[in-house]
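Sample entry as discussed:
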Amino acid sequence: MPLAEKYKLGLHYGGEARPKKEWAILREADILTASYVASDHMLVENFSDVCLLFEYTQGSLTSLEYIVEHSMDETVWINEGKIEPAEPIVDTAPNHTFADDDNYGLVFPVLAKFVRVRVKGTGTLTGSSLKVTAVGVN
């Protein structure tokens, strides 16, 4: 069962029941591009934290890059943890190396009313896919 479906059904990894969470698909599963593409966004102001669930197929990519962004007005988007224009976060640390069909979550505190993510692939894009779901957590 895909990770996002577990949260949709109110289940965690062990299969035990959990309270349902508010969630939204920010990016449907689709091939990545060589340029950053912004996802849809989610209203998160009523939550203390947000979990982004990434469902990733590497295909022929070298890496996946993503930038988490926050906004108070859905117009001006601020890159998380940056005051100046952000450099992308390249997730290649040993515990976050993306492999074929890798699913993972990124949890962070709510910093504004809305959240979205910008993503791109590097290398050969053939066979790559990424779906991103946001889950509000209290």
Summary: The chain is about 5% helix and 45% strand. The mean pLDDT is 77. The first strand starts at residue 22 and ends at 30.
